[in-house]
Fold this sequence. Notes:
By secondary structure, this protein is mostly beta strands. The protein has 2 domains: 1-141, no CATH class; 198-328. The two termini are 29 Å apart. It has no helices and 20 strands. The protein has strands at residues 4-10, 32-44, 47-56, 61-71, 74-83, 104-114, 119-130, 141-152, 158-171, 183-197, 202-215, 218-233, 236-247, 254-255, 269-270, 273-284, 288-299, 304-305, 312-313, 316-326. The strands form 3 sheets. Strands 1-2-3-4-5-6-7-8-9-10-11-12-13-16-17-20 form a 16-stranded antiparallel beta sheet, with no helix packed on it. The protein has a two-stranded antiparallel ribbon with strand order 14-15. A hairpin with a 4-residue loop joins strand 3 and strand 4 (61-71).
Amino acid sequence: MSPFQISKWINPNKSINSNPSPYNQFVFRGSHNLNTGIYLNYSFDNFTFFSEAAHSFHYGSAVVAGVLGSLGKTELSLLFRNFDRDFYTFTANAFSENTIPQNEQGFYWGLKHSFNKRYSVSGYFDLFRFPWLRYRGYAPSDGNEWLFRCNYAPMRGVLLYIQAREESKIRNPSDETNLYQVAVGTKRNFWINCDYTVTRNISMKTRAQFSSYDFDHQVTRGLALVQDISFSIHRCKISARYALFDTDDYDNRLYLYEKDVWLAYSFPAYDGVGVKTYVMFQYSLSNVDFWFRWSKLSYSDRDVVGSGSDQIAGNVLNDVKLQVRIRF
């Protein structure tokens, strides 16, 4: 692959024109976008240096640079990023706090240290800045996020860890009585997790997850208790979950990864008060794989689930997936 690239996006039949608002004055508008980019990777001993720069013709630029390295039992990573507010790309998947690489500057530090085979610690600190307004943040602002995790593996097949994470950045008040009034919101998450193997064919995972959100001197909280179990019997694999969750509001939603069918990614947000269960079966033959997944979400704090065209009367949401893959 060449280190120098040019990409062009053209839609002659339709032009993108977003409704103007204070925060989106620099979103892409039009039917043509031309980008050029260059990247560089270099390895020296236990360190790998990488960087990439891109530019939208007649608009802004983006730069990412970092290093990955190992010093004995310590692994580290550093990354710098700078995305102009008028940099436009439709295919990038860059490291950023925003959902798209735009209107952001930041510096990330990551670290992992292994004391021995049983004990290790890891974590990161991310400092970021938004030079222009953003969605629900109508002022240029700074923010930060950090995570710290302690791992303990007392024996083979058992892993315990505790983890803490905090994110702090500004946000507009929910009532939007004054769009230009902002306050700092701080989200904190705590995990206590245990992965353990019961037998050769049975493994389990138990987790307690807590959260709190402090915004404008008001604190709300959330809790989730999760039990996972996985079976493996010859050609059949079975995964199941039972989860209880209780959050004060959507700001304290808890994200929990769920196993899903092939090529599907499930990382839903649990909010409100309820129970989430699912069971997934996978059966494999010589060249055919079958997946069947059923999940049930039951709320005890509402009479309808969803909104708009996705709204369902009642407090229960069932979801069924069936997938077949044939390998030639």
